[in-house]
């Protein structure tokens, strides 16, 4: 990690909309405002919904019963204590007393029950998350105590309660029978003050927040869809902070790191950047082709020349700093001769004068799919295309809009497709749990495996067992099997990068990939 710091007072910010102030306060200085940017508006900010809701913003407004902390610890949040029942099928939570939503409604057991039952009323919306399917019922024992009853033992229950969505809480007054909300009303340290589509969102400090109040008074989030425009805005002093995985390209980040006017930092590994290979579609249905691809792409060159060493190379599905992942697995070495030998042995021969290998009259060509507007994915795809061509594999690059790209992930219309793991606290349990549903690329990538049914069965077992030794053994089998079947080509371990002007002050990293700790930013002065 690299960091430079020069602390002085955060300057007053001009040219930004601010909330009206009472006339009596006119002589006071303007509120301290952090100017940030994001690719789109925060969305309607429903705590139980997904896109277009932005996760960083949901985390600003809504809180969980328990909070995930760096290093995998769980800490009290809206619940001060919890106890697992003897049969492993339930949890009893003691709620923090005296809390209120920003509309003044009390946060109590009735509010928890209302929110969770709203989730249970729409199971198909949340079937990717095993905990929702495992919840049998929720009841208010008394105003300060909630009992969550599960259908069976479920080891990751507390971790999934810590997720940004969908198990966070809005005021019951705004929950609608159709599952929507009338307004974004939570208990968090921020509230949404105003939103202008295509322009900005303004968040204001929650004056009634139960915890330590943020030092900042406002967070202005400008809508900036392009990373180059974002970099120019930072240099021009129009925004104060860039934070995230791909908010700046690697070359621009390195340029800021060399500029003494700015502070830069890189987080520890948070998730995995990867390409999924379709085991149910020609030609990646052939294990020899998948293994040849694993040998034939130069991962180190991708990290060095495209990512510019801003992310460490990844040889496994998960980094070894996640639970149950320190198995000593290693990626196949980059070795074009080994890749060619695998293809030849499998009957994929290169006719004289041809560029592509063939078998039984069919050329060895696959679709390599990425998000068209993602310049980094495009650069990685082009480099991969070149490596594959050198071993006689053709890669048609398909860069499409996000909706089409996500549709391909779900339908299986891909040979190779970019994807990420989800990071803490999802990895590995929630990410593995989602592999059993065709909601992401993983189900399609694995669908052609002869042991797919056993993979799904063992995922169910690892999530349900209360035996620690058995759980570790199941994770070992699952992660080793997926590794050996070469249905993933891990590229790098994702990190968050931050850049801000050196006079901003202290900016920490959040405990997860998707949380931006605005409430812990401490401007000097």
Automatic annotation (TrEMBL):
Its main location: periplasm. Keywords: Signal. Coiled coil: none annotated. Residues 74-440 form the Solute-binding protein family domain. GO terms for cellular component: ATP-binding cassette (ABC) transporter complex; outer membrane-bounded periplasmic space. GO terms for molecular function: heme binding; nickel cation binding; peptide transmembrane transporter activity. It is found in: Periplasm. InterPro entries: CntA-like, Peptide/Ni-bd, SBP_5, SBP_5_dom. Transmembrane segments: none annotated. Residues 1-25 form the signal peptide. Pfam families: SBP_bac_5. GO terms for biological process: nickel cation transport; peptide transport. Belongs to the bacterial solute-binding protein 5 family. This is Nickel ABC transporter, nickel/metallophore periplasmic binding protein. The gene is nikA.
């Amino acid at each position: 990690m690299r960091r430079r710091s020069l602390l002085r007072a955060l300057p007053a910010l001009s040219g930004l909309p601010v909330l009206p102030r009472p006339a009596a306060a006119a002589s006071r200085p303007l509120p301290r405002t952090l100017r940030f940017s994001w690719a789109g508006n925060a969305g309607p900010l429903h705590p139980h919904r997904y896109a277009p809701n932005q996760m960083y913003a949901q985390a600003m407004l809504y809180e969980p019963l328990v909070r995930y902390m760096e290093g995998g610890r769980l800490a009290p949040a809206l619940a001060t204590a919890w106890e697992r029942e003897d049969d492993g099928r339930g949890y009893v939570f003691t709620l923090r007393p005296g809390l209120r939503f920003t509309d003044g409604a009390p946060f109590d057991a009735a509010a928890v029950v209302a929110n969770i039952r709203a989730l249970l009323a729409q199971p198909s919306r949340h079937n990717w998350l095993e905990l929702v399917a495992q919840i049998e019922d929720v009841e208010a024992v008394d105003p300060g105590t909630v009992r969550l009853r599960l259908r069976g033992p479920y080891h990751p229950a507390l971790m999934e309660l810590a997720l940004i969505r969908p198990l966070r809480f809005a005021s019951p007054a705004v929950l609608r029978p159709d599952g929507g909300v009338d307004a974004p009303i939570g208990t968090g340290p921020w509230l949404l003050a105003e939103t202008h589509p295509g322009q900005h969102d303004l968040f204001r400090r929650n004056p009634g927040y139960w915890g330590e109040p943020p030092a900042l008074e406002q967070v202005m989030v400008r809508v900036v869809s392009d990373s180059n425009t974002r970099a120019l805005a930072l240099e021009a002093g129009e925004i104060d902070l860039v934070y995230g995985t791909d908010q700046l390209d690697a070359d621009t980040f390195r340029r800021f790191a060399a500029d003494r006017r700015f502070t830069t930092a890189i987080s520890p590994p948070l998730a995995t950047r990867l390409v999924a290979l379709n085991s149910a579609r020609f030609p990646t249905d052939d294990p020899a082709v998948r293994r040849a691809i694993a040998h034939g792409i130069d991962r180190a060159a991708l990290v060095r020349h495209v990512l510019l060493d801003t992310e460490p190379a990844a040889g496994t599905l998960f980094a070894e700093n996640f639970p149950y992942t320190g198995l000593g697995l290693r990626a196949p070495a980059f070795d074009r001769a080994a890749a060619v030998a695998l293809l030849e042995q499998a009957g994929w021969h290169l006719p004289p004068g041809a560029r592509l290998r063939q078998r039984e009259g069919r050329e060895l060509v696959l679709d390599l799919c990425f998000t068209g507007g993602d310049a980094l994915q495009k650069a990685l795809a082009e480099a991969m295309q070149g490596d594959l061509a050198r071993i006689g594999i053709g890669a048609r690059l398909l860069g499409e809009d996000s909706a089409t790209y996500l549709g391909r992930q779900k339908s299986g219309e891909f040979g190779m497709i970019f994807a990420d793991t989800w990071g803490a606290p999802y990895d590995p349990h929630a990410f593995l749990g989602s592999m059993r549903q065709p909601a992401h690329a993983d189900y399609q990538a694995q669908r052609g495996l002869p042991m797919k049914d056993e993979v799904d069965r063992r995922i169910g077992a690892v999530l349900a067992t209360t035996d620690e030794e058995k759980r570790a053994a199941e994770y070992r089998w699952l992660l080793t099997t997926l590794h050996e079947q070469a249905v993933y080509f891990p590229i790098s371990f994702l990190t968050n990068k931050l850049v801000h002007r050196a006079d901003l002050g202290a900016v920490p990293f959040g405990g997860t990939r998707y949380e931006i700790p605005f409430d812990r930013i401490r401007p000097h002065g």
